[in-house]
Amino acid sequence: MRGARHAKWAACAVAVALAATACGGGDSGGGEGIVSSSWGDPQNPLEPANTNEVQGGKVLDMLFRGLKRYNPKTGAAEDMLAEKIETKDDQNFTVTVKDGWTFSNGEKVGAKSFVDAWNYAADVKNGQKNAYFFEYIDGYDKVHPAEGDPSAKTLSGLKLTGERTFTVKLTQKFSSWPVMLGYAAFAPLPEAFFKDHKGWLSKPVGNGPYTIDSYDKGSQMSLRTWDGYPGEDKAQNKGVDLKVYTDNNTAYTALTAGTLDLVDDVPAAQLKNVKNDLGDRYLSTPAGIIQTLSFPFYRPEWNTPGAVKVRKGLSMAINRQQITDTIFAKTRTPATDWTSPVLKEEGGYRAGLCGDACEYDAAGAKKLITEGGGIPGGQLKISYNADTGSHKDWVDAVCNSINNALGNDKACVGNPVGTFADYRSQVSTQKMTGPFRAGWQMDYPLIQNFLQPTYYTNASSNDGKWTSKEFDDLMDKANAESDTKKAVTGYQQAEKVVADQMAGIPLWYQNGSAGWSSRLSNVALNPFSVPVYNEIKVN
Fold this sequence. Notes:
The structure is a single chain. The protein is an alpha+beta fold and 539 residues long. The protein contains 17 helices and 19 strands. Strands 11, 12, 13, 16 and 17 form a 5-stranded antiparallel β-sheet that branches. Strands 1-10-9-8 form a 4-stranded mixed β-sheet, covered by helices on one side. A hairpin with a 4-residue loop joins strand 6 (158-160) and strand 7. Helix 9 (305-316) packs antiparallel against helix 12 (362-371), helix 12 packs across helix 13 and helix 16 packs antiparallel against helix 17 (484-501). The protein is globular. The two termini are 41 Å apart.
């Protein structure tokens, strides 16, 4: 559940932008027992509640452990530091923290470590980008008002009740709330964070299997195994050197030359060579990422009954299979719903929910668009940021598909916006006049996380400003459902409203990819498309 002032996909796009310009990392592979991996400098200081992009997230995944951890194979939210999380009404929770955990500086991890961290994250004065994750805790509106100064310093819904216990009161029933607690924003913080904040930022201290040894911005961050780590998921290597590359082609060249061990984003230009170059040292697996086209529902021409038919017709005019096969070399999968297959059925994924609207049908597309009154303004302009160089090909392919279906080579054109910053500025200030590229990378493995932030009325990542009382009511009802299976069914009913109105056009699910050197074994990506660093072995 999110109240973000941006979309998570935006962070991913920034990471891609970093990886698409020119510059290279180091000139040697990892040392004995050390994994060397491609990376990009984090956008923000490595505070758990202030890191909302992929590169910083990689570090936090090695540096911290929270109440829950998402199983690196299944994505299931499993107890980590939580001994138990109890509730009788799905609104009031009692959390008991496991004994025996410490931070790498020797401080004990207790209930206060979480309560203090969460209060810091929620306080508007601290400017934490992930503050919205705490919006369902009672009192959030007082410490993080939409406007003006806060009237409280701490969340009234958080109460410290013992060294290892605290209680949480939510603003409404939300049975799946504990699933969120594996996200890094909910990580505990040591007292050193508050006593010497500047010092902590210069060398963050956590409670995970690694510690930060050094960081040279623009070059490398070195993490080393923490021998005193009390968890069962101990590192199977001696450390990880994250080497900065602002061009993933350069990183790939370093990998094939033997000067880098791991690249976790194989560039599209190398996909045709990767099997010959790496053999079985390459993987491509589904990730919790979906790419979509959003619409400006704040413009009246896109918010009519006829426009529903137009949007469905446009969706039918997109030959997803052809585009994913040719443009993306099968590293994308045509989308048939608005979530991700990594959720599996128990998490809410429902293959085929989109129905005929996501099947290529040129004749049907033309018929629907005509019945809906035609494309508003006579021409479709798909907006995207042009600075990464990675979007033009697929936008052009989408437009070519639409143009072919309609028999009009000028029906659809790309509308490049110079920089990512300019693009996001136009999106966030409601300046779009037609469809614009969008998408979502899951924060936690639940259908609710794909729907609520992007389609709920006035949700922070609902950039198109779509609104539906029916959808909102179904989401509220599902959130309050105590039975998980019934809650998932409720979320799927809400998703059906998205489908019926074509609130956004689902394009394709994104795969994560990785290639590695012969020095490594046991390489895998988790459902968030991040390497499971602690499990990698150095031969």
